[in-house]
Amino acid sequence: MNPSRGLTWFSRLTGQASPVPGYSQALRVADADLDGHPARFIAVVPDPDNRFPRVRDGEVGLVEGWEIARAVRELAEAEREQDSKSAIVAIVDVTSQAYGRREEAFGIHQALAAAAAAYADARLAGHPVIALIVGKAISGGFLAHGYQANRIIAFDDDAVSVHAMGKASAARITLRSVEALEQLAAQVPPMAYDIRNYASLGLLWRLLSVADADAASDGDVELVRSSLLAALADIRATLDRGLSGRLDADNRSASRKVRELMRAQWQSDPTHG
Question: pTM of the entire structure?
Fold first, then answer.
């Protein structure tokens, strides 16, 4: 099996830093220096021998969800009293959440919610959280690992994709062909799978062009590191720890309108006072 992009970039960005012990093979955690700034890097990677078959290709499963939550919360707890808190960099290359009977029976929804909540709590506590999308960012896998970041950076690359579900799954759910979905995607940006349409929705902080996302050169690594540093500086330049800035894009006008109407309806109801 070829190394995943997530593992490749985790290795290049953390260098000689020792992995934090105590995590499964599918989750890589390391504390490394980001040009003078401490940072915890986290990546979910393929594990072909994993005892849960549905996570062997880099999906986020039961164990990964709880372990992400632990990796984030352990750092946040250790730095609770510090004014300057370490950055957290989520390297994202996740093909999906792990769909399976065992996963559903043992509450994968709780495991992934724990991961998302840990990232959100760390962000609100003052940890700069940055997501670096180097490959797939699909479904609950991305919601659990990366979506809660203050800033999201993605490679401008054909193999990078962000969506609620894979094309084949979406075709089955909507009773359409993959070809029909692709025709819709050409007209409706939220339906599209490519990263440029996703960027038009206002969720990305920066699109980044590297020469080779699969075999990063030293120049590529330097470009990514400088972008992470720029994101870090941008986060620390403001006291805003929320995500409302994502609603500013032109293609989010409907989202803004829905929120406006829901807020007005809520506030007009005396039982909500």
Answer: 0.92
